[in-house]
User: Fold these one by one.
Assistant:
Number 1:
Amino acid sequence: MMRFDLTRVPIVRAIFVARGPQLALQLGAMSGLILVLVAGLLGTPVGSRNPATVLVWIAWWAALIIVAVPFFGRLWCSVCPLPLPGEWLQRGAMLRPRDTGRGLGLRWPRRLRSMWLQNGAFVLVALFSLPVLTQPRLTALLLAGLVLLSIAISMIFERRSFCRYLCPVGGFIALYSQAAPLELRVRDAQVCAGHTTKTCYTGSATGFGCPWMAFPAGLTSNVACGVCLECLRTCPLDNVAINLRPMGADLLDSSRIRLDEAFKSLLLLGSALVYVFVLQGPSSTLRSSAAAVGTAAWLAYVAAFFLIIAVVLPALFLLAITVGRPGTPGWLSPSQGFRRFAPSLVPLGLAAWAAFSVGFLLTNASYILPALSDPLGLGWNLLGSSGMPWAPIGGSLGAWPLVVILLIGLAWSSRRVRAVAEELGGGVRAAIPVWAFSLLVTSVMIWVFVA
Amino acid sequence: MGLRRLTGEHLARLALGLIMLGLPLGLVGAWAVARTAASPTTVHGRVTEDGGWLPGTLRATVGTPLRLRLISDDVQHGFAIGQSDSPAVDLPPGEIVDTTLSFSQSGTYTFYCTRWCGPNHWRMRGVIEVTGGQPAISDAIDPLYLSLGIDIDAPHPALVVPGVRPSAERGEALGTGLPERMRSRQDFVRRSPVEIWQGLRRDPSTTGLSDSQVWDLVAYLWHSTTSIDALSDGQELYAQNCAACHGEDGAGDGVMAPNVAAPVLAGHESGDQPSSPADFTDRSTMLGASSALLQGKILRGGMGTGMPYWGPILTDAQLWALTDYLWTFQFEEAP
Amino acid sequence: MGLTTQFSKARVPVLFVLAGLALFLPWRTPVIAPVERTVRVVARDFAFTPGTLTVNPGDRVTIELASGDFVHGLHVEGYDVNLTAEPGQPASATFIADRPGTFRIRCSVPCGPLHPFMAGRLRVGPPVAFWRALLLAVLAILVGGLALRHSSRAKTADQGFP
């Protein structure tokens, strides 16, 4: 498999190892967060004019889903401002280790060391998303809440326990970063085998031990690595590499997937489906119910959400997997089949989220400059664009760009399905039902977009 | 331990401090300064259910311009001063609109919302207390309905109704021979169409005319005592203020009508006797009302029925233009 | 497997031909004489009623926007139709529906929190685009699942883990 180690290029390595550039980006992100918090709490309550809603849910979210995650993996996590206050307090340092630090440093409870908490956090945010997405105060309170939570977690538990086990966005990024052409891995496992100190995990004077509690030599996918670059700085044997690689390389090994990650693939795909159908679909009653948090109509929506995500979609998926079973040698149990086919849902889900986000971005991008020009609603015109009218982009193309994105995801996913079917000795016959499942999910979204 | 390392960390902390303290301080400071500034005064506009105009009372002095920064906090609103020539200002949601008001006389002025913002849109009003200067010479006279002793809350059934819609154009052909005393504006506004018809019917000059032709004369009298400008003004005022409840065609079936019949604001001082908006196309009631009665109703409001009071908002000329326009729901200008 | 190998060799031209057919093959739609249509769309509570307007290609369509609560706007993507209305003051626009397809109708005046999601659809003619896209989706599955050589290596030697 082709890989090009970027750290072999001296200037690139220097930029990665130096803490300055990363810190500059982190401080930039922090400034953005502060602007969002102040504007959200003090600025206008009108969602289309306030930077809190516009910068977070239109600009940053689109950049994350369309560019950062598919092409740069988890790179956002290395500059994300949410855990930084907690981390700096915990470490007692912003740059190199200083033998200072606060916090109890407890290990994360064993029973909670899985993706289920993150899955739950994502669902929770999703259910309350309509009011939060559209009201600046609520967006600010959500982000402030996450910052405070991460500080609290950092003072009690070790390293980036918040990021790894709780952050709802982190769970999302983790899964889809597997599609990216960028990865952090060790160069030679034998070198690691011979190195007893394991400074990449324990830390040294030059860097902290992996905040994500991962063992670099054991990384087989982008899911567990937040690309914070500490191991690049601590490894005394220069054995850490940042590789350019073919997209989706992590999806090739379907045998390593655990149930929580497999379920996450289905959960996030289902969430995209629900989002597309509720927010862009034909039923305004459904939309209003999803927005009317606390009412009976909303409870009905929540019930329907769970029904689709936790019952209908998994049942259909399992059906598709087991239908191809009879007569094929070497077939596994439904649970194992579920885990083996789950990675093929990653490109499908990523395409669904990307298509949804592109649609939302094209419609609402014209709000960004006016919101930045008058961030607190005080009548400023910093960028001269305060009076810019709303202007959706690309109306004559309709939803075809979104369809193209879906088709790319579908083709990619189908290829993965075929590959897994071959691995399991099932061939095309085993792949067809799963293809049908993917086609069903995709056609619902195509119908919402173009019909 | 190298000096370099310490400096790096300190620089980082300095940068962080600048950002975490400087940025919020700057932003919050700017916000606080704007909020507490004496001038211009910031007025937030919200739908009545969420507070209406905040603040609802402003103060100004004669001779000093009142600078206002208006900002809508939810939907499209508008701002205007009642009984004033100054054009209304639109308030797009979330955008600051600056305006300056000048007052030459002291008194209490009403400002109000000019773009529909829910069923309680008409309740979105505030006052400006203007002090100083010469007190306004009170030239207020009693509204016509008061001086005539008309009970505007009493039912006004029409004892006689026309068979077809009376036409002013047909009436004009017939009415050229009418004596001058019967064609005054004063006369027209004081009596209901039924009373006018009865007066005309009894008059010897109409002996040869049929009942419906006399109705045409009534329509002609209406049309000849008003003007094209007044009817046009009335139409605009009706569309902006009345059509939402009374319907674009005057039938009392506007989009807000269901809200009026069951008022939204509980415990409001008016609204304990809700009823449907009046149907101006109903001959059996409309023709029994005089223009003075209609003008009084519009001026004073509905006393618990949900009909707004327009006294502080519309000038006399506007009120009469509106009542003139209301007759278009009963009379044709031309067939 | 033989079919797959042949597919692999000829995949690019076959792909283009099939995609071109799916996209551009003329769709036989029944020709219906264009008529004059008037539709009253009521905007209220972040919804357009009716939410879907169905017309035939060539129809002369008049949309009357009436509002039930606040100032709302109506913008039809793909056609240059822009209206603003508030209770008591409806607004109309007339246009010829000469471009077939499904076009989003969006509210163009901020009218509260759910404003960005206040949308409807104008359907001119049958939803041919949907069927074309569906065909392309089947094609995408075939492309991904059959026509391309797939590498099914579960592990690669140079990944460097034990």
Note: The CA atoms of residues 83 and 316 of chain B lie 9 Å apart.
Number 2:
Amino acid sequence: MKHVLQYCGQALVYALFGGLVWYFSSAPQYINLASGKAVIKLSFAHAAQHVSACRTRSPAELQKLAPNMRQARECPRERLPVYVELDIDGRRALSESLPPTGLSGDGASKIYRRLTVSAGTHTINVRLRESARSEGFDFAVMRVVNLADRQNFSIDFNLPKGGFILE
Amino acid sequence: MFDRVFTPAWNPFYCLGALGYFYFWVVAGTGLYIYIFFDTGLTEAYASVEYMTHQQWYLAGVMRSLHRYASDALVIMTLLHLLREFAFDRYRGGRWFSWVTGIPMIWMIFAAGITGYWLVWDMLAQYIAIATTEWLDWLPIFGEPVARNFLSASHLDDRFFTLMIFIHIAVPLILLFVMWFHLQRVSYAKVNPERGLAIGTLLMLLTISFVKPAISHAPANLDLVPGKLDLDWFYLWVYPLINVTSAELVWALAFFGTILLLFVPWLPPRAKKSAAIVNLNNCNGCTRCAVDCPFSAISMQRRSDGAPFSQEAVVDPDMCVSCGICVGSCPTATPFRRRGPLVPGIELPDLTIARLRDLTEQAASKLCGDNRIIAFGCEFAADLEKKKCENVGVVKLPCIAMLPPSFIDFVLSRDLAAGVMLVGCRDGECHYRLGARWMAERITGVRDPRLRARVARKRVRSIQVAPAHTEDLLSEITKFTSDLAEMDLQGAAVLEEAERDSPEIGAPH
């Protein structure tokens, strides 16, 4: 009788432990994105123009340099920050100045932002400045998109491919 | 309660670490099998997992489910093991090594589990991949955001799966090495649960695998954002936490939590008891102390004092937990010695053998009544002081196995008491791991130093009792007292009978 009770007790403990594994291995359900919503992601890694243009060294300057370092052109490494703005339906959703990466500030500026919007039609206006100009933008695109439920809409920037890529 | 249901040998709480090992092997074995059928690739990965789950459900599908559920059980066991060792104060002193090496294992278990979910490449995997890389991107170490790999379908390629499968296999292999390392300072480590327990828990996992097989979500689609997800909360709870709070907060929790856990053995400061010391004049290098030490704190080294023995015991003070088990194993630790000072080959400075003999004699001198008992008790077992009374004297020890068996002989042969009670922790729950086991083996004569044959075993009562069960101790003391009384009555009757049967000396014929 004692053994029977022991085995029943063990079965109960296994059932409780197994039940814990059973339930929490896939429940409760988590809602990552509610129905009726969509996501717009703005992400790119882009190197802006250099802080100043290359210049030609004078003969006197070249003479001062070691023979193996006598490059006629001197180009600064540092780059400008990239400035980006994103408007959704005429309202400013994002505006950021992205500093260049790297210890010498000579790397690409990078961004990755995720914005949740309601599904449906939206007007997207995205602009980017990568030069020393103080007014206006070097790249801009405006598009009206119809976002489906839970759609992932990405905005990338790739200069060799012509600038902004919306997909 | 678990002792009664499972018996102490099968009690899962006494072998949480061993159960963790067992689950690891189940995960490794099932993982090897499902790897045979797994394809790396954007579409191939999902298709191969679906094949296992539906076409070959009876074997590969079950293996997949076992792989998942054993991984979940591994997380539970790891957490329980950590909490239990912490709750019972088994992480300080010489035990710091096992504690500290256990902390990186938590990270590895999670890394292995999360990359496993990633490989299925369903909507859950997509969610994990994006959430993980977004979290990693908070660190300023990546030239380009890693999460850009999942910006759209055109950004992802098959190479990512090759990297993931590499991590998913490499991390458990490193984990296995750390698991081995984890036990380097634990002698006689228990790495396998009792067979019955292993069978029981495996049957439990199999039952879940058949009744609720592990299934995938819809295939990953980077044009869509994952909506409702059936998360495995044992591994994936961190992602909702990031969502609710922020990546930086979770990084801070992970970083400072890990640092805190790593330094727990030294916080808060607690006065360390003095480590055992070796008295070379009385050490003959018999090796018993080194063999019995549960934490490998004693090593046998070449003799340094010119005595005619090949070895001598050397204690590493950093690894010694001052349990005194080595003292109990030393054949020179005998209270009978009266000529000269009582100094054994090895002893604890805080409780020398001479002091232990004094305490025993003092406890005996205060006893009165017919059925006097000296109770030697481990300080981590039930509180003996509460049970001290007219006929019961108490001598407390760091561990019951610190008591050399010759003390029992000493008490009984010198008539310091009519009975000796040995109160230790339960086997499997022993604070110093092996104390209860070694003491039992010394009493039963299978381990040196053995209790002498001349000692009447019925006058020695051994009990293993947890602090919460002091009522068991009380009832055992009452029973032992009445047993001793009965023995005395029987003894008196035998003596009376012998006196009646034998002719009286000097009687007239």
Note: The radius of gyration of chain B is 30 Å.
